[in-house]
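FW: tagging you since you asked about this chain on Friday. Here's the raw sequence from the shared folder, copied in full. Didn't touch anything.
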Amino acid sequence: MVRRVVTRFAEVVCPPGVRAEGRTERVLAEFDLLLAALRPGARRMLGAAFLTFDQGARLYPPGRGRRFARLDDTAADGYLRAVLARGDGIAALVERLKGLIVMCYYALPEVQREIGYEPGPYIAAVARRRLERYGTEIRSREAQE
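HL: got it, structure written out here
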């Protein structure tokens, strides 16, 4: 059940391209990797947070008693915006959930290419610059170990 909620959440919080070419499934795979890195208690709490958000949509008047996972795009977006506009602890929690899912979206290689994010050349340039600047100290330290 959590997977269905997270899927719908991703469709709402990520750019429209998330629905293209099976990206939603890849976002969920990234999210699963993120969950696997967490302690079991944290995983359970994230699941509970998504389920609570899902069930809370039943109280949103345009949702007409439906869960978030069953809302159409307009109602789902409206519910998310309404929760975020509250400005309380619940809004802060949902903002964090949104951040996690969006981070998983931007971790996809094809999305990184689309936005021109290419860290490889930058990392290589920084490594080269550091070796030029600190190479002597690095080699000296390695020789001591």
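FW: The chain has two domains: 2-114, 117-145.
HL: agreed, and Residues 117-145 form one domain.
FW: great, closing this out.
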